[in-house]
Amino acid sequence: MADEMVRRAQSFVNSFYGSRIGMTVEENGKTGWPTMYALTRALQLELGISSLSNSFGATTLSQLTAKYPVLNSGNIPSENFCKIIQSALYCKGYDGGSLDGIYNSGVQAGMTKLKTDMGLIGLSPGSDLTPKVFKALLNMDAYVSVNSGSSAIRSVQQWLNGRYLNRQDFFVIPCDGHNSRDVARSMLLAIQYELGMADGVANGVFGPGTQAGVKSHSVSPGTSGTWASLFSAAMVLNDQPVTFTNTFDSATAALVRTFQSFVGLPATGNGDFSTWASLLVSYGDQSRKGAACDCVTRITSTRAAALKAEGITFVGRYLTNPLVPLPSNLPEKAIQEGELQTIVSAGLRCFPIYQTYGRDASNFTYMAGRTAGQAAVNAALDHGFKPGARIFFAVDFDAMDSDITSNVLPHFKGIQDAIADDGNRFQIGVYGPRNVCSRVAKAGHSTASFVSDMSYGFSGNYGYPLPSDWAYDQIVTRTVGSGAGAINIDNNIASGRDTGQGSFDPPRPVKPDVRLDPTVIEAMKTDVGKYMESLGYPNDGGTRTYQHWKCFQSTVVDHDDLITELSNKYNMRKALVQTSAYWEMRHIEPADLAAWDVAIVLFNTTGKFKDTSTGIAKQRGLTLVGAWNHCLSEGLVTGRAIADPNSDQDKYNIWKSAYDSETFDITSVFLIHMWDIAGKPHGDDTSPVMRSPRLDYVDEEIYDVLRRYQGPGEEAYAEAKKRMGLYYLMEKYNAISRNR
What is the mean pLDDT of residues 703-723? Predict the structure, then answer.
């Protein structure tokens, strides 16, 4: 809600500084970063800094320290300078007195309360304002418990501030009761300071020097003092139910054993190096050998033996490689032919991983999740995974908490819906940073986590505890074996929550498509309709011309014989043609029908052809000319003469064939795809030539074929992502039919 004093602060900074600091803020009475940025710029102006910035950085701090190492009622340089302090106090929720430019008793009381909340009153008694506290005053950190913050964590935060703020690289951390990236880094700085590292050497990184120092500071029952405090602080920050204390007693030892068992360490009850490491950094002690691994390299018999000798039982392998399998694109990333049998023969077990392009938030949406869910099911069945296997869907980027809310959670809801529509044959796992895994699990979209703890710098790992449902904990990349058995792996600790599979059904071979099995058609129609509804296309057609059932009947069922025949002739999956034709027919609008009538009347009265998309697959005359001419010249089709793309008569004739005949439309979908794959010679698309049509196209190729059908515009790229989900549904039922 709005606060009048915050509104007055916003009015002040706009009135006195707006034109000089290059920004104004909305006077809405609500604290936010824009107001803090404006106050920071105002302070920089008062300090004589010429290059203003939103950041209270090293220059601002050094200038403030040089000019005003301590600010109080006796040395405030100006009224406006004091009003900046008062405004910042208001925005932080503290009393700043009247906005009168005087460091009065209200300001002093507010400053004392702020420093008390920060845990600094013992280090800096009274109401004096020091540069580091000023820096903390101009950010959005909270110094009181918020959002059900832990009182134990808050006491650790206050202790760290009060003990280490005078060190060069330690700054005021929030005291809100929540662990965070800044708090975790400050904990490492505290460790380094207690190890005797000088300012400028201590850097908050768990490097070799810090590790060596920690190894010499194990704690156990009877330990007391600062190192016992640091250890209990680290336990508190990892959400362990310990009391923050400077004494390591038997009760603490019991809780340590519980923690050690949870993270997969020997339950000794002592704070040894491995336990310290698990508390301080996400990857923990990287010298540990896990019982699991994942890799992008084929498991051969010699490599399997090397893994077995290393103590590994569970191997994570990828269901697909979404990229065209060139040497530079990890050609063995996906499970290879015969590989699962090799794994089984060696006494190993395999858990499946599904990953596409997910390197930033934009690749994660509900629609993309539905696509991923069905694609993963198809691939798992192709390889021979049995129902019940848990597929780990990857989120392989540094997802901010806001990214998880806006993109990742809807994505996994899409996966969950796709898996449910498939009959819940497979379980859902999530691979990603700690915060991603925990939030996806909390939302009910996954049943176990594969944690990318090796990426310790990810915001979703730094300051977050290990998820309670972790199955695999990825901690380090290493090479095991030698010679032909050498293999580079990500070594993972295994909790036992997931054990992969140790036997498999025969893999589904790559076979030509056949006619749809009549028993799957109704389920196929239902699934396609549900998918389109999830994209906002109602089954009754909505504002468009044709209902779902009609489009499905015309583009999938009625012409199944023709589609099957041409699929075998051109070595092209039926699902590609079904997807393009169905998608286009679902998009026919009354305005399209009117445009077709206009084109016919205009040509019949003037001889001039006004090109527009027509027929159930919405094909333009010029596109049809290009595709048919290409396929005629390549001997892929017969029965027509080469058309002149500059002739209205020729373009109209072929366009009218599409208008009149669904059979012609369906045949033309194949030919347009063939033309697109060839790089669309003499067409409007500059896309490169693709690999020749084949039945084992990877995601990248499927996407490109679907995109090229629509054209080179930006809309086509976005729409093709939606068509991918439809493709995998169509392919699901074609695969069932050809494998019966």
Answer: 92
Task: Give the pLDDT of residue 179.
Answer: 96
Judge whether residue 2 has pLDDT over 90. no
Q: What is the DSSP letter of 519?
A: G
Q: Alpha carbon of 347 to those of 305, 343, 501: distances in Å?
A: 9, 7, 11
- What burial class does residue 618 get, using C-beta atoms within 10 Å of its C-beta: 0-12 exposed, 13-18 middle, 19+ buried? buried
Cα within 13 Å of Cα(401), Cβ side: 8
Mean pLDDT of 384-411: 96
CA distances from 547 to 196, 538, 558 (A): 74, 8, 16
Q: What is the DSSP string of 45-110?
A: HHTT-SS--SS--HHHHHHHHHH-SSB-TTT---HHHHHHHHHHHHHHT----SSSS---HHHHHH
pLDDT value at residue 327 = 65
| CATH tag for 292-494 (out of 3.40.120.10, 3.40.50.300, 3.30.470.20, 3.20.20.80) | 3.20.20.80
Domain ranges, ordered by start, for the chain:
4-140, 182-280, 292-494, 518-738
Look-up of token digits 């901010």 = 400
The CA-CA-CA angle for residues 144, 175, 184, to 5°, reads 155
CA distance linking residue 727 with residue 703, whole number of Å:
9
CATH superfamily of the domain spanning 182-280:
PGBD-like superfamily/PGBD (1.10.101.10)
pLDDT for residue 687 is more than 90 = no
One DSSP character per residue, 151-206 reads HHHHHHHHHHHHHHTTSTT--PPP-SS---HHHHHHHHHHHHHHTTPPTTT--S--
Q: Report the distance separating Cα 183 and Cα 161, nearest Å.
A: 10
The reported pTM is 0.93
